[in-house]
Amino acid sequence: MSSAQSDCHRFLPDTAEGGEGIPLPARKAVPFGWRAWCIGPDGVTLRWKGELREVREFRFTVAVDLRSAPVVELLLAESGFRVGLCEVSYGYPLQTFEFALHPGLEAAIRREGLRLRTLDGSGVWVLALDLEGRSVPPGLAPHLFGGGGKAETEKWERSFESLCGLASIQIFGWLEGCVLEGLSELALRVPEWRAGAERAIEDHLDHFFSSTGMTFVSPRSEPVADRWYNNEHGLMLPTLIRSRPDHPAIDQYKLQLLEIYQRHLARLERNLSCEGCYTIAYPLAMMARRDDNRELLEMALDTLLQHQRYLKEKGDLFLQYNYAEGTRIYPSWVRGVAWYLLGHLRVLQIAEDFGTASTKLTAIREEIRAMVETLLALQNERGLWACFAKEPITGEETSGSAGIAGAFVLAAGLGCADASAVAAAKRTLRGLEAYLSPDGLLSGVVQSNKIEAGEALQRYGIRCRSQMGQGLAVQLAALLSGQ
With CB atoms counted within 10 Å of each terminal CB, which end of the chain scores lower, N or C? Predict the structure, then answer.
């Protein structure tokens, strides 16, 4: 395994004052029982004793779901000099935010320390410094980050390395599913990273699944035990099936899906979204492969065809279809496009293994070809796509771009696209490099879509870092390895 991060430095504080003893909001929990602080108007003060070298960022990780956009201020603790502001807009648990630091602040930070506080009187719960050896990964604790000015050509190696650590873990569901899919592709296609990726997969799964059940914190920071919170959580299933095919949670999810689909698949009586292609159809196909069950495979194919029918209108793919109102929202939203394509392709891969031709498979192949052709024309000169793919003014977005480019590689491998799609995916890989931090974290990711913020959150230009996005980017890098 590479030591590509050897010129990067992470400086954990030696002491912390404030932020503790404040009870969590009612019915909320911190993932994995990790320690957390509350940054409020009175603030949290951090101090360092050792040498600080080339510090370029201060990083912290959200511990409890946010349904608003508080602003956190970073100050030198004694003089009150403002170092920076960070809008923690709708941050989700385990999402890392950062303050960029001006060069030359090392001596002042060591002398005074840093103070974090909110400006609007609200409280922002963040994962705490692990002074007592408890289990918060150092990469998720508040820390200064420095160095990384060397070996820019190793950015993807750095990204592989960081994804293979526990600091890449995400909240249970589609967010963590994207990380697991990236690790799975890395283990499958990049031999020198196979062992590290496989260890990371087991470590991540162990944080959610015991031998007999599962416990997790929901996207709304609610503790959950032994039940599937919603169908978007299904992207946890493919990796779980590959790693632990007999785990009881798999059959629990299957029964839940069968109940829903026996009731609703014949006629639409529910809302649909692009995620369903990736978080419902793909897990159904994986269970079909595990059980050698063609009925489940047919259900996966029918799910895709139903999404095709209701999510597309006049040449546009929409993120969501509202059954009650008959309306569609988020036209050509790039991450939804990625979910849609990746779901179609992963199901097609599995259907090919069954070796059965059908009109359903023909329709799925035709849809993939048409989507690839449309998206090739929308790719910008840097190899990326806009947040709303047909609206360049909304700005390029990295996680959806990585997912689409990964789908292009899969499509070419399945005969649904030609060499131009692979060439386009390689342009995306190069374009993403500008968004990788010195230690391989991906920025340029549009924030997690939350109903309270609506479409405006996706349109007004906010971008952040996300381990979920990094998982999609590593999946692309792994798919292109050796090409």
Answer: C
**SS3 letters for 406-437?**
HHHHHHHHCCCCCHHHHHHHHHHHHHHHCCEC
Closest CA to 442 of 143, 69, 146, 179: 179
Judged on CB neighbours under 10 Å (0-12, 13-18, 19+), 393 is: exposed
H or E segment and range at residue 64: none
Token pair listed for 103: 């060069």
Q: Is 151 left (phi over 0), alpha (psi -120 to 50) or beta?
A: left
* Confidence at residue 455, expressed as pLDDT on a 0 to 100 scale: 84
For the stretch 223-254, what's the b/e string if a residue is b when 16 or more beta carbons lie within 10 angstroms of its beta carbon? ebeeebeebbbbbbbbbbbbbeeebebbeebb
**Confidence at residue 396, expressed as pLDDT on a 0 to 100 scale:** 96
Residue 129 main-chain phi, psi, to 5 deg = -60, 135
pLDDT value at 1 more than 50: no
Contacts of 219-227 with CB under 8 Å at 24 or more apart are 219/65, 219/92, 219/93, 219/171, 219/173, 219/175, 219/448, 220/65, 221/25, 221/28, 221/29, 221/30, 221/64, 221/65, 221/93, 222/27, 222/28, 222/29, 223/29, 224/172, 226/252, 227/252
Query: CA angle 376-380-381, nearest 5°?
Result: 115
Residue 357: CB atoms within 10 A of its CB come to 9
> Is the pLDDT assigned to residue 40 strictly greater than 70?
yes
Average pLDDT, the chain: 92
- For residue 292, the Cα-to-chain-centroid distance in whole angstroms is 30
pLDDT attached to residue 19: 81
Arithmetic mean of pLDDT, 253-280 = 77
Give the C-alpha separation, 363 to 397, whole Å.
29
At 262 the pLDDT is: 65
Q: 375, 385 in Cβ contact below 8 A?
A: yes
Residue found under tokens 């050796």: 482
* Distance between CA atoms of residues 462 and 88, nearest Å: 10
Predicted pLDDT of residue 3: 47
DSSP classification of residue 278: I
Torsion angle of the four alpha carbons 129, 134, 137, 138, in this order, in degrees rounded to the nearest 10: 40
272-288 pLDDT, tens per residue?
999 999 999 999 999 99
pLDDT in tens, 342-358: 999 999 999 998 887 79
